[in-house]
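In this section we walk through a basic example: taking a raw amino acid sequence and producing a predicted 3D structure, encoded as discrete structure tokens. The instruction is simple. Fold the sequence below.
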Amino acid sequence: MSNITAPIYRHLDEGPMPTPTILLVEDDGPLRTLTSRALRQSGFNVLTAATGAEMWVTLREGPVSLVVLDIMLPGTSGFDLFRRLRRECDIPVIFISARGSEEDRVLGLELGADDYLAKPFSTRELAARVSAVLRRGGNNPVTTEFNGSETVADGRTPESIHFEGWNLSMARRELRSPTGAMVDLTGAEFDLLATFLAYPQRVLGRERLIELSRSRLGDSSDRSVDVLVSRLRRKLQAEGGESPIVTVRGVGYMFKAEVSRA
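The resulting token sequence is shown next.
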């Protein structure tokens, strides 16, 4: 994929926002037609793909604001496609699937998806969720290139946040341990950590965490928050010592470490 250089999505802070382009990856022809028509009627540009291979070709061809990705695709799973996509960029993704079990939803959220919608679904609900995810993306002037490069924030000095020897780069979306090792975070884990760092030494309830963290937490259940907190804790404990995230029984969580910005 190293030859892919077209930017996937762009947020502009001046002038009218361009119409978002949605890439719908769905192998069911009639459902793909129905869903794409409904999204267009809701004001989106829509591109479609029936397979993972078609998805990669479409992503090379031009900017895409968000991907609606079916999990059960021929030849490969949407989960595998998502993992590969996340290695390249942080484009928002909404999973759709006939597999609506809690286990599948939690797996999708653990991987870092922005939302998960079980089939059969209302096309109006899908359009509303697409709009919500795009709104939560914010209005920062960011250009992401699908070429294996890091995310860069045009014209801005990278901001770093430090705690107990750890360093979180907001511009690069990177976390480094006190020894300098890179720690791999999903999009959901990064957003959750950034939220904790923005409100250090304050108790945050689960609903507040969902509200504040760009809500990659999907269907906003206590279970999804607890799973992400648990995963983030394990990664922060990988080099020994206690996690700075503590549980406040019956209320939520608190990031107890002191935080500084550079």
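Looking at the output, two observations stand out. Confidence is low (pLDDT under 50) at residues 1-15, 138-158. DSSP finds eight helices and 16 strands in the chain. In the next section we compare this with other chains.
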